[in-house]
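fwd from M.: "can u put these together and see what the complex looks like"

so here's what she sent:
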Amino acid sequence: MRFWCSTIEVPWSWAWRAYPGVWLMSLAIAVPYLVARRRRGRARQPHGGVGMRSGSEALAAQRRQTWLFLAGVAAFWIASDWPLGLLGASYLASAHMLQFMLYTLVAAPLLILGTPEPMARRILARLRMYRIVTRLTKPVAAGVVFNVCLVATHSPWAVDNLRANQFGSFVMDLIWLVSGVLVWLPICSPLAEHRLRSYPAKMVYLFLALGVVPAVPAGFLTFAGFPLYATYELAPRFHGLDAATDQQMAGLIMKLGGIPIVWGTIIAMMMRWSDESRASDGDQRPAPSVDPRTGT
Amino acid sequence: MWRNCGTPVKLRALPIAVAVVLGACSAGDADSRYEGLTVPEAQLRQVPQMVLADTEGNDFDLAADTEGQVRLVYQMFTNCPDICGVQLAQLSSVLRRPGAPKNVEVLAVTVDPDRDTPEVLRAYLDQFSADFIGLIPRSEQQLTELQNVLGALASIKVFETTTTVSDMAHSDDTMDMYDSMDVGHGDVDYDIAHDARVFAYAPNGYGYVQYPHPTRQSQFDHDLPILAGIEPDAPKDAGL
């Protein structure tokens, strides 16, 4: 039994394999969150609603956040555990890429969206990381760190060496998750001061950070003359899929896989921006004059 | 007695033997033209002049029927759990590439003639390429002779048994136990440890280079045009 998915040299089999490290890590993310939410929920009960919202609205928002967080944990677990985790660590470059997309484009934003502001502040204070996170969430820093991690962790050296052992494989997955969280913070951080203020800035940032640079390694993977990664080239074949086709699929996943999420988010932001602009226009319009004769 | 040892012992011994054999070859030499393991001039061998059966049941002369071609001789078996499929997939990918030399024949010789019938072998090779030539030794003796001529390690049957070396030491009649396994009739599950090198022979018949597992596609792709460019009537030193 292994702690974390890493390269193995036996032919692929659909026989289930246990990776307790993945379960422990998933639990280590989910359990403290749920405990903290429960405690906070109890502490708030005697005081009724929070802020401007009514009690039921606040409860619904809290539930929604909890579900988003748990969906993020589920995405993390699916990307790390058998079968996708093992396929990505040992057999298929395309599975490796799918893992990367799940960590950075699904798990990371869901975990952020599921984290309430007070909890985020408490975590950063306890870890004494508020200042460093504040610096790293500047758009240029976040975009650069994410893309450096992306390019570095997709280099043949990194893949072939890190995937070869459990610790290296774990480190690679952790880098993906942390850099994924970092790159999304300027968009949807629970802390207002870490978020970009204007919608246009958010949209440009998202396009540049998640839409442009990934196309470069994706191009290398799609158009390379030979398989770049020894790990996947020399692995026992998965259902006859040859290494070159698998690598091209990996390149396409990297290039096209993010489009629905990145562009979906940009479109959602445009719509919200438009709604908010319309609402503020409505607020600024002069109130209809009152007819002194009718009083209406 | 060693043939009856438990699986782990045999599989541990094989890589050591392979390392010893490969020590005779040189890889990555600054002088070498090849990216595979270059065979020193003193140890150069010619393509075996032996007649095996192909997957149609016809005689196939390894030397005469492939004259003027690059021959890539690879020992394999269809129940091979790992390396055989990887090496054949590598060769298939390299030879499918645009610009790959045309005068290259892959000669896949089974080391498991008991289970690899012509139909089974053909179906297996077709997963990689219909152009790969499947060859079946006529007898165990011919297989051993071929391995000697190639300079390959002898293949070893590895039985799925819980017998250990200490068990064997206490066995009074180990050979009887081996014989009772009904070898070769498909009743006993076994694996085969075999030499996983691809032996490459230039069109002039000399085996200048070998490719152990793992060999990258880029290495094959670098070397095959060099081998294919050697004329069939070129002297021995033409490929050095």
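replying to her w this: Residues 16 and 83 of chain A are 8 Å apart (CA to CA).
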